[in-house]
Write a structure and sequence with these properties.
It is a single chain. The chain is an alpha+beta fold. The protein folds into two domains: about 170 residues, no CATH class; about 170 residues, no CATH class. The protein is about 55% helix and about 15% strand. It contains 14 helices and 14 strands. The strands form two sheets. Strands 1, 3, 4, 5, 6, 7, 8, 9, 10, 11, 13 and 14 form a twelve-stranded mixed β-sheet that branches. The chain has a two-stranded antiparallel sheet with strand order 2-12. It is elongated and about 90 Å long. About 0% of the residues have low confidence.
Length: about 375
């Protein structure tokens, strides 16, 4: 009989105990896989800073607007290559639950700064030309069944229209895809001029300004120059890289990384206690079997391999079960436009398997010590 067969038979000697331990481990690794996938989305910032884009916002808080005149002043700085602006629209389609990530932009200035947004040349021209044009991400267009040329009405949760109410009429001029791996395809973009002249408050204000440096690696120096140019003014600025801005935005909802770490750590500590205690009880119950192995001449190394192998096999198979289940759930969610960025990356699999190996070794430590120090006469004397 091979050692692996012996390990397998030992694990399945009491099927109910094995099943319960397997479920505990699988659930913990299911939680691990899902939380790591969510954390990957939450901490992502568009995969990379395209052209070292810098985001200029109000020093008080990024929710406070900046004067529109700042755009030209920033573009005129010596180290700036391109500058554009965005303003949060806070839109939804038909009902509030159909929330949209929506921005008012200057198409001619915005699209060159974000070259990863790809669309048909004729659609691009139509969006730039049409004052009521709407640039829609592929995922959002698929979600609502929108097509180019279709008229849609969007409502704002923040702004009101001079014509009355909170609704604006648009025509879908272009549908874009994102060339970046995992890039966002859910946002919608409208003309700032149209929005600015029809809203009832906040006229000639912008939410933030996006600027790219003229020289490679000049992002940090440009950020300092921008903030220095507007120091001691009524609207001081705070300029950071695109990645830093994304992290600051997520920080408004709490420390996502810390929350995920605490939840995962709590699950693993609980799992370690349950499985470790069960493995110790299991080892104690089989002390007679180990005594027989020793009496038959099994070397200490073989006994160690059987004890450790049992713990590792349980931990790894349970982890794989949990991670595969997490992968299935992520795949289902990924098919929805709202969760298109979710993915079980190779890094998650590697981290999960490493954690499984660590779990197996930790839970095997006490039973292994007991097995190696077990006295044969004492073990065989036990009923």
């Amino acid at each position: 009989m091979s050692e692996f067969t012996l390990i397998r038979k030992n694990l399945l000697q009491k099927p109910l105990r094995f099943l319960l331990m397997y479920i505990v481990i699988a659930v913990a690794f299911l939680l691990f896989g899902l939380l790591q996938a969510v954390q990957g989305v939450m901490t992502a910032s568009g995969s990379a800073d395209q052209g070292e884009r810098q985001i200029v916002s109000n020093r008080i808080n990024f929710t406070q607007p900046l004067p529109y005149a700042y755009v030209e002043r920033i573009a005129a700085l010596q180290g700036a290559r391109q500058a554009t602006h965005t303003s949060w629209f806070g839109g939804y389609f038909q009902e509030p639950r159909n929330f949209l990530v929506s921005y008012a932009v200057d198409p001619q200035g915005y699209l060159p700064v974000y070259p990863e947004l790809r669309m048909d040349a004729r659609q691009r021209e139509a969006f730039v030309r049409e004052r009521r044009g709407l640039l829609v991400g592929h995922a959002t267009a698929a979600r609502f069944g929108w097509t180019v040329g279709q008229h849609v009405t969007l409502h704002s949760t923040i702004f009101s229209n001079r014509a009355g109410g909170h609704a604006w009429d648009f025509v879908v001029s272009a549908i874009y895809t994102n060339a970046l791996e995992g890039g966002d395809e859910q946002a919608v973009f409208l003309h700032y001029d149209y929005f600015n002249t029809t809203r009832t408050f906040g006229t000639d204000k912008v939410g933030s300004i996006v600027v790219t440096p003229r020289a490679a690696g000049g992002g940090a120096a440009l950020a300092r120059a921008i903030d220095a140019a507007f120091a001691n003014t009524p609207d001081e600025t705070h300029t950071v890289s695109e990645q830093q801005f994304a992290r600051a935005f997520l920080a408004q909802f709490g420390n996502v990384g810390l929350i995920v770490t605490i939840v995962v750590a709590a699950a693993f500590v609980t799992m370690l206690l349950v499985v470790g205690n069960t493995m110790m009880m299991n080892g104690r119950a089989r002390s007679r079997d180990i005594g027989i192995f020793k009496s038959l001449g099994f070397p200490r190394a073989a006994v160690a391999r059987v004890v450790v192998g049992e713990a590792l096999l349980l931990a790894v198979t349970g982890a794989l079960g949990g991670l595969l289940l997490a992968r299935g759930i992520v795949a289902v969610l990924h098919a929805s436009p709202n969760f298109a960025a979710l993915a079980m990356t190779p890094a998650i699999w590697l981290a999960g398997l490493a954690a499984a190996l660590a779990l197996g070794l930790l839970t095997a430590a006490v039973p292994l010590r007991a097995a190696l120090n077990l006295n044969v006469a004492t073990a065989l004397g036990r009923a």
